[in-house]
Every structure is written in C-alpha cells, then in structure tokens.
Amino acid sequence: MTLPVHLYRSDTREWVGQVPDEIGATPYVEWDGHLWAVLERSHAYNLKSGKYHLQRVALFVRPVAVDLRDRHQVGDHWTIGDPTCRYNAHSELLRCVPHPHGPCVGCQSYARDHEVS
Q: What global pTM score does this model have?
C-alpha cells in the first residue's frame, strides 16, 4: 500500500499539496512547478493486531529561492554557494549572512577561508 505524502508550509502549516511516496529522503521536493526545501518530516502510525502500520506522512516545507546548480557537496552534506568563503554558512538552506541571496561570484564580502574537499 502506498500513501501520498502531504506537503505543508513550515511557517503557516498551510496545506500545499501531495506527492507520491517515492520521493525518498531527498531534502527537496518539486511540486506544482515550484521547488520546496524539506525542513521536517512527520509520520503517523496506527496499532492494529499488535503491529504498527504507517497511516500518513507529512513534510513541512518552504519555497526554495536558490538555484540548485549553486549547490556543492562538501563531505557528506550539501552547501549553497562557495564553500571556501569564510562567511559561507555551510548549509543547504542559507548561503551566508553578508549576501544570502547570492551570487557568490563578484561578492565584495568574499574572504577565502580554507580549502574544502
């Protein structure tokens, strides 16, 4: 049995829509022509005949305002923008404080921090 995954805005808890359950553990969901960042996952279970059964799945999301081509994998996680900049937040959700919407190219606040592998 497959259950649809319900999407809710993380800030208002307003229902956005539903997607097939094959989305896996990805940090992003594309729905209705928009890209959403998954901030929280919620699972509800029922106990029947001594066994737990998945009843529903909900994702709490927010719209993504960053171009996914600007993401870089650093070790085991993703970061937005130039990971060698001292001010980079090393986060999938926030680029940096001086210039959070980017781009990194030509940023006057850029300061080389260290080499990132």
A: 0.60
